[in-house]
Amino acid sequence: MLTYYITSLLTTITCLGLGVFVLCKNTKNPLHRSLFRLNLAVALWSFFLFLHYSSKTMPAAMANLRLLQAASVFIPSCYLHFIINLLGIKDRKPLRLSYFLSVVFLFISFTPLFVSGVEPKLQFRFYATAGPLYLPWIITYIAISGYGIYLMLKNYNASPPLKKNQIRYVLLASLIGFAGGATIYPLFYNIPFPPVGEHIIFLYPFIFALAVLKHNILDLKIVIKRTVVYSLSVILITLTYLIVVLLAERLLRNIVGYQSLWSTVIAAICIALLFNPLKNRVQALIEKIYIKSAYQRFKKELLESDKQKALAQLAAGMAHEIRNPLTAIKTFSEFLPEKFDDAQFREKFSRIVTTEVNKIDSLITQLIEFAKPSALNISPTDIHGLTDYTLDLLSSEVLKHKIKLIKHYTKDDPMVEADANKLRHVLFNIIKNAIEAIGDNGTLTITTRRTDRFVIEIADTGGGITQDDLNKIFEPFFSTKEKGAGLGLAVVQGIVAEHNATISVKSTLGSGTTFILQF
Questions:
Q1: I want to staple 44 with a disulfide (CB 3.0 to 4.6 A). Which of 71, 257, 308, 384 is the partner?
Q2: Which residue segment(s) compose the domain that 112 sits in?
Q3: How many structural domains are present in the chain?
Q4: What is the pTM of this model?
Q5: pLDDT of 364-386, one tens digit each?
Q6: Residue burial 157-190, b: 16+ Cβ < 10 Å; e: rest
């Protein structure tokens, strides 16, 4: 019985703890909220199961049994809700039906029709006996949960790589949770099979948490690994410390012959002061060698996944961006035979065709740069010099729009390891966008500073970017400009990622935008 006490309580802790953890990661995300509701339902079920196992009297056992069954009727509906949010399915009719059935069985769960009573079974002091409507509940449970699994299998092949990974995690966790829970029911019908599967249910919330966090999966993996490695290092250092203290005390006792407790305490404190820097150095070494390498590995995997997702969007964007120039060329080509002798028409035709072909050529060049970037040529690069060069190229635009230019350059070393040509492209694109956003009579501020990284901030006083658009500005073919192809910032992000640098954006509607580069 002791193992059932422990595992039911462990399931409560893991479900509730990881449910809250995932919810706190993003309280506004429907997927995070639906996983919290699922984990809460399972946590309540396992908590009242723990109280049921611990009950000393039949009325207490029966009361806790009613409460755990009341919690369990919502598990399949919460599970289906989580799956629908995971897959982004819009049709909510099956979900509404499942919640309706859960409410119906909630009322039935407090009657003998659901569970007729409790009695001693196997090693259990009290165990439930199924009522006449318990079998329909089991069938409903299987049907709702099975429908969720069916939706995942149906959508698996059409899903992008990262989503496939999530689905695999959820399928594995579902197998653990449902297989473990299924062993509870035979004993309801007096089939002498113990509910041994309860001992593995506590594992499912860990896998669900990994599935939900997607990009934040990195955070959880690093936290878990850091905790394990640090704990082992602290244990090892502590054991070493204790051994040294005991050996030092014995050595001093044999040499000096003292018996004072205060001398032992003083010796222990002195040794502890020596061990503390050692502990810090060991933990720093672990951070440098293990944690950072793991972080880079997971980061690379996620960047590759994002890249594949972005490339999948290119086909639709290409069709839209190339169609307009081709339509103009086609229209003029159709009229050319009729108006070939019209010198004005030929001149207009030549000008428009040249312009539209240049648009297509520029688009293809950006697309090649985005999809298949050339190899980096890394060398020490003067950021200040590169920024000034870019500003010189755009000086006519700055003067034309009467923009006030402010530069706050750090006095620290401005050199970074970078590909100067590619970095020039990054700065040109961001500064040009800033000038276009400002319009007339605004301010462009460029600030650099060096902390543990070299930071460049490019701030404008333009109209700002809405929160919805801010989440999309690095997506290929997304543009808020009427004549923008929408590849500029996508290429910029790719170049920044190649340099193992970061780019972020802060913007307030009506107050301007700031791009932050960190090398």
A1: 71
A2: 2-214
A3: 4
A4: 0.48
A5: 765 565 555 566 788 888 989 88
A6: eeeeebbebbbebbbbbbebbbebbebbbebbee
